[in-house]
Amino acid sequence: MEDKEYMQTAIELARQGIGSVEPNPAVGCIIVKDSEIVGRGRHEHFGGPHAEINALSDCRANGIDPAGATMYVTLEPCRHVGKTAPCSEAVIEAQISKVFVAAGDPSEHVAGGGIEQLKRAGIEVQVGLCRKQARLLNAGFFKHAETRRPWVIAKWAQSADGFLAGKTRRWITNEASRRDVHRQRRRCQGILVGVDTVIADDPVLTVRIEGLNWPRQPLRIVLDGSLRISAGANVLDTQQAPTLMVITSGTLQRQAKRIRSLAAAGVEILAVAHDDKGRCDLGQLLDELGRRGIQQLLAEGGRDVLNSFLQQDLVDEVRVYISPEPLASDGTVRISEAMEQAGDKTHLWYAREQDFDGDRCISGMVGEIG
Questions:
Q1: Which of 251, 274, 280, 293 has its CA 20 to 30 A from that of 211?
Q2: Burial class (CB in 10 A: 0-12, 13-18, 19+), 138
Q3: Would the CA dihedral through 221, 222, 225, 231 be positive or negative?
Q4: How far is the C-alpha of 100 from the C-alpha of 91, rounded, in Å?
Q5: What is the pLDDT of residue 167?
């Protein structure tokens, strides 16, 4: 195998961690000695050992001394003490002779320091092999580290004839598509909807996957400039998951009594500026969510909210679930022109089409990964 093939194997290992490691990046690691893979590891779950540690452990479990071996890792080894010990020190102690790093870690506690530490220890380091693939795998992590804003995923479901809702049907898409939505929620630290969606559908907005007790529910974020939400809405039950109500600064004074009541129930209130139509300032909101450590944000609707994100060029990724059935005269809310264009896979980078029991899912990035 060539160096590129080894790194691609490490990337595929890393991919298995998506949905379990967030907000950490998904990382994979391969150790090669005498042209044979002698150790494999990945970051398996948040708070668990990092990929390099698992690969070294696997190598030793196979009865192989890693000294003199070559390591292929998808992200720069960390050099700080967090939930685990620094990976760079473990690599040095194992006497690895050469390390291929797909992408440097731009986060402030690493930022090239791990690579420099390896070099100072006499280890040969090469950076950039399969860099784009590695950055694509952890696009949210990289965007947040470099811009302090979350990676925004615009998600919606539509009928074959472009409707988002109907008079009689609660669900546009099938159960397989809805299961995938929960898998996507598991990637994210925040789920965002507008208050009209809450009023119309009363969603719970949690990760619910059969057989999985998911302990780290995403923050539920509701855009409700004038605080129109009903007192009994599911998203106000903070026993299920935390909730952030986003209102305009003027509402803070006008609805002071209700705000105190919501706060007493555990609901957090965030006041932001508004535009000339009274809508919440999305840029200010993304800045605040970034400060809170939200790397990936799933914007689930409704139409006006998604349209605003798209028109302001705030969307990074699109996921559109399309039913094969039309709603025709039963349809009530059509997708916007911006949504129609965004959901056209010819306009997306790295576009992908999946089948979920007859439903189609079109996904891709709004721009190229650097």
A1: 293
A2: buried
A3: negative
A4: 12
A5: 78
No. of H helices and E strands in the chain? 13, 16
- What is the DSSP track for 171-228? -SS-HHHHHHHHHHHHH-SEEEEEHHHHHHH-------BTTB---SPPEEEEE-TT--
Whole-model pTM: value is 0.92
CA distance 269 to 280: 13
Q: Which residues are catalytic, by number?
A: 52
3-class DSSP state of 125:
strand
pLDDT bracket for residue 328 (50, 70, 90): confident
Greater model confidence, 320 or 278:
320
| pLDDT tens figures, 218-261 | 999 999 999 999 999 999 999 999 999 999 988 988 999 999 99
With CA atoms as reference, report the closest residue to 58 among 78, 79, 37: 37
For residue 184 the two structure tokens come to 């996507």
Strands 70-75 and 349-356 turn out to be: unpaired
First vs last C-alpha separation in the chain = 27
3-state DSSP assignment of residue 340:
helix
Closest CA to 270 of 312, 282, 72: 282
Domains for the chain: give ranges and CATH numbers: 3-143 (3.40.140.10), 148-365 (3.40.430.10)
